[in-house]
Amino acid sequence: MTPVIGITTYEDHASWRGWSARAAMLPYVYVDAVRRSGARAVMLPPGGDDDEASTTVASLDGLVVTGGPDIDPVRYGAARHPRTQAPATLRDAWHLPDLVGHGRHDGPPNGFGLHQVRISPDSTLATILPEDGFIEVPTHHHQAVDLLGEGLKAVAWEEDGTIEAVEAGPSDFDGFSGFVLGVQWHPEQGTDPRLFTALAAAAEERSAGRATAEGTVLAPMI
User: Fold this and answer.
1) E strand or H helix at 57, and its extent?
2) Given this model, what pLDDT does residue 11 score?
3) Strand partners, 166
C-alpha cells in the first residue's frame, strides 16, 4: 500500500485568478519531494483544536513539518529579537547571526543558500546520509535549536557548532514508531532525495504494521 504522508501548510492571504482570500498554502516543492519518494501527499491546514490535530495525525503514516515563519519566542521563554518575524500563532500551536557572527545560515533574500553540516556517525541520520566529513545542504533560517527537548539528541552540526539535525529513538516518544527526525536545512530544495525516501520507507512500514494489527487494509486518505 502507498504510504500517506501529511505536510503542514501555512495560513496566509493569497491572490489567484482574480480571487483574494485567506488560504492554506504550501510550496509545491514539498509535494513533489513526497511524491518522488513513492508516498502520497496530504496537505494539513493550520488551526483546529487538539482533538482534530491528534485524530488527523493518527490517520497518517508519516508527517512532514515544513519550514515557515519564526516561532514566537514567548513559547520557549525568550525575548523577541528585532529580526523576529510576526508570529503565526495558529501554526505555532499545531536569532542566529548575532550568536555565530556570520550569515551563512540565512541564504539570499527570498532564496536558499548552501552551507556544510557534519553528521554524527552514531545516528539514524548517518545510515540515511552515510557521508564522511561535511556535506553541503540548502539553507535559509535565522532561528536554531538552543536547548534540546526531552528524548531528542543532536546528530548534525554546522561548522560553527549550530545544531542542524535532531532525532529520537522509537521508545523515546509514545505513539511514534522508529522514525523521528528533524533537520534545520531544506532538503526539499536540493537534489538529494534520500531523506524523503527514508521517510517514505518508514511510513510504508508503519502503514503495513497498522494494517496487520487491524486485520484489514486501511483506506488511504485522499
Assistant:
1) helix 50-58
2) 82
3) 154, 182
Measure the CA–CA gap between 163 and 154, rounded to whole angstroms.
6
How do residues 117-155 score in pLDDT, each as one tens digit? 999 999 999 999 998 878 999 887 666 777 787 888 999
Query: Cα-flanking dihedrals φ and ψ of residue 51, to 5°?
Result: -65, -40
Q: Which residue has the cell 500563532?
A: 89
Q: Of 126, 94, 120, nearest to 198 (Cα)? A: 126
What does the block give as the cell for 55? 485524530
Q: How far is residue 72 from each of residues 85, 125, 180, measured CA to CA in Å?
A: 8, 28, 23
Grid coordinates given for 10: 501555512
Q: Is the pTM of this model over 0.85?
A: no
* Residue in 45, 43, 54 with CA at minimum distance from that of residue 10: 45
Alpha-carbon 44 to chain mean position: 13
